[in-house]
Amino acid sequence: IEKMTDLVAVWEVALSDGVHKIEFEHGTTSGKRVVYVDGKEEIRKEWMFKLVGRETFTVGASKTKAAINIDAVSGFAYEYTLEINGKSLKKHMENRLKTTNTWILTLGGTDYRVVLEKDTMDVWCNGQKLETAGEFVEDGTETHFSLGDHSCYIKAVSSGKRKEGIIHTLIVDDREIPEAVE
């Protein structure tokens, strides 16, 4: 395996199907550009005459659009910025906090990362979209699914405050799981 000597940037991106690692190699003498997603080579360009520019690719199971921008800062210094769905990584992360809930838990020695996409009510676990069943209950809704032989549901209840909106809680085997901050 060729050593990544021109590695200039590494990013971690949390998506519904998992946390993905994006690595970028930029050879400022050869103009080489290589993009790796989760260790797998997605783009390789050798001998690029232009050292600045943009590389676009997709990340994860949902084929989320991503781009790396290469900008000259001064002389031979370059700046690399990652965009996810047309937003800076920072904006993407802020947006995810509003549109998703994430829980990380261990059941019977298995680690699970459960993500709720609030706009669609899709539930993802360890990279897979789960089969769910929604039901209305007295004070809100419950979205039922299972993790292994554990019965789970996400309870959605109005906070009663407009700014807070709906509060989502993960219940596994009648136990509340605290939300994770990624």
UniProtKB/TrEMBL annotation:
Its main location: cytoplasm. It is found in: Cytoplasm. One of its GO terms (cellular component) is cytoplasm. Keywords: Apoptosis, Cytoplasm. GO terms for biological process: apoptotic process; negative regulation of extrinsic apoptotic signaling pathway via death domain receptors. Pfam families: FAIM1 (PF06905). Belongs to the FAIM1 family. Plays a role as an inducible effector molecule that mediates Fas resistance produced by surface Ig engagement in B cells. This is Fas apoptotic inhibitory molecule 1. It comes from Centropus unirufus.
